[in-house]
Amino acid sequence: MTTPAPVHPVDEVPPVRQLAAFGLQHVLAMYAGAVAVPLIVGGAMKLSPADLAYLITADLLVCGIATLIQCVGFWRFGVRLPIMQGCTFAAVSPMVLIGTTGGGLPAIYGSVIVAGLAIVLLAPVFGRLLRFFPPLVTGTVILIIGVSLLPVAGNWAAGGAGSKDFGEPKNLGLALFVLLVVLGVQRFAPAFLARIAVLIGIAVGLAVAVPFGFTDFGGVGDADWLGISTPFHFGAPTFHLSAIVSMLVVALVTMTETTGDLIAVGEMTGRGVEPRSLADGLRADGLSTVLGGVFNTFPYTAYAQNVGLVGMTRVRSRWVVAAAGGILVLLGLLPKLGAVVAAIPAPVLGGAGLVMFGTVAASGLRTLAQVDFKDNHNLTVVAVSVAVGMLPVGVPTVYEKFPDWFQTVMDSGISAGCLTAIALNLLFNHLPAKATSVPEPDGLPSGGGEQGVEESREEVV
């Protein structure tokens, strides 16, 4: 008898009970970010509460479909890794501008559809760029992803940006309590419970938050039981050249961010991303974005917060995240369930987010541990890339005097840091070396050199 080939952890299918628990954990990790984009865009356009609710349910539905496409995959669509999909924040400013300057939602959706088609067409081109992502670049990008997400967790822990009680000690106390619960479960609970530490922390935090008045379930009673998003609910899409150009810039930014996220998950799961699989993942992004334009929502990309959850729980199965996609589809079809999840207070999410996002940053450091920093310029590549990536995070208005297209690219710390890391790696490690290069005693060289050239991603895998 022949022994069956071992199944890779990415392809393992856990029992249904674990699938549901792990999947719900992923949904709770990304829910606040997923609904934030329609809330911001709809609020800026002064939409009615009914239209805002419609945008949110449509967003959740397409989030779920996009996640299923990415994890399960079909033909050449989907990277088939544990990747959650959600609306990209890189598109918020351009969409608000398009929607409030006369074009309205139809102009937004027209530009989104064109951007999605462009991503599908450009995916093979980006797939061939994988050789420019050695461990020096990928480790730096993963580190930037984690650190740039920490302020999001900080805002949640303080009560949510714009809340009346932002920064109140009670909010930070609740976040700290959730953080301690997550750490305690990870350290002392059995293996299965340790893997759903974030879910347990959120559940316990919610149980404590309700009697202390942190949340209000009044919106649950007002929500409908059933809601179905129909194509072009707000009218047929219109196509304006200026709107399309700005959304194409967003498409390039999201492709760069998604590339970093896919490589990060590949590192964490032990299934390295190759040019073909990268192109398949980006192609799924494009298809999901087209569906977003058709079903009244926005461009889609991989969600970095769930990358952190994969690293923290060490649950590598793509079917877990596919189950999360199924839950999102249900939330999109059953607004009342969505209202229950939406009632979770921000400090509860903040306590869990601190662990998850910090895990992403730590994973970047682990990847950088493979890099040789002796007698080369690799330390400079990491230092400058992290600095450029953190600049818009620490000073959000630093680029507000620049053109819109520049802001779209550089206001995302992830894309800014990623582009910088690629450019500096090419400059220091791929251009011909200077004739003389004298290393300093502390390992920081005074001249260029190719001794720091990393192995290509394919060779590492």
What brief labels describe this structure?
461 residues; mainly alpha; two-stranded antiparallel ribbon; 19 helices; 2 strands; globular
Give a written overview of the molecule:
- By secondary structure, this protein is mostly helical.
- It has 19 helices and two strands.
- It has a two-stranded antiparallel ribbon with strand order 1-2.
- The two termini are 31 Å apart.
- Mean pLDDT is 80; it is low at 440-461.
Give helix % range: 55-70%
Task: Using the CA coordinates, give the radius of gyration.
Answer: 22 Å
Secondary-structure element series: HHEHHHHHHHHHEHHHHHHHH
**Total E-strand runs:** 2
Poorly predicted runs are 440-461
In what order do the strands lie side by side in the largest sheet? 1-2
**Biggest β-sheet, characterized?**
2 strands, antiparallel
Total helical elements: 19
Average pLDDT, to the nearest integer? Answer: 80
Q: Report, as a whole number of angstroms, the end-to-end distance.
A: 31 Å
Global geometry: globular
Strand content: under 5%
Alpha-beta content class? mainly alpha
Compact summary:
The protein is an all-alpha fold. It has 19 helices and two strands. It has helices spanning 16-44, 49-71, 92-100, 104-127, 135-157, 169-188, 191-195, 197-209, 218-222, 241-269, 275-294, 304-313, 318-333, 335-342, 346-368, 378-394, 404-410, 413-429, 457-460, and strands at residues 85-87, 300-302.
Task: Present the secondary structure layout.
Blueprint: H1 16-44, H2 49-71, E1 85-87, H3 92-100, H4 104-127, H5 135-157, H6 169-188, H7 191-195, H8 197-209, H9 218-222, H10 241-269, H11 275-294, E2 300-302, H12 304-313, H13 318-333, H14 335-342, H15 346-368, H16 378-394, H17 404-410, H18 413-429, H19 457-460
Antiparallel strand pairs: 1-2
Helix pairs in contact: 1-2, 1-3, 1-13, 2-11, 2-13, 3-4, 4-10, 4-11, 5-10, 5-15, 5-16, 5-18, 6-8, 6-15, 8-15, 10-11, 10-12, 10-17, 10-18, 12-15, 13-14, 16-18
